[in-house]
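Our platform keeps sequence and structure together, in a single record for each protein. Such a record has a labelled line for the sequence and another for the backbone structure tokens. This encoding replaces a full spatial description with a residue-level series of whole-number codes. Below, we set out a record of this kind in full and without editing:
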Amino acid sequence: RVGSWSPGKTKEAKIVALRYLDSHGAVLIRESADNMAQFVAMSKFSLDSYLEEGRGGNGAASIQPDEEAG
């Protein structure tokens, strides 16, 4: 579902992919956020920010997986 990860993904595509992983419990595993941040080549702070935005926090519109563009 997440597919391959490339540096050229848009922010929205990254949020959708991270939201999918989050909804399936990927961040519940100890230290998994550190591993995910390393895998997607972003800081843990950015990862947390993207996850929060994907969850609809900070006043941002929640992005649903069905809204991913191609």
About this structure: The mean pLDDT is 76. The helical segments are 11-23, 32-39, 44-54.
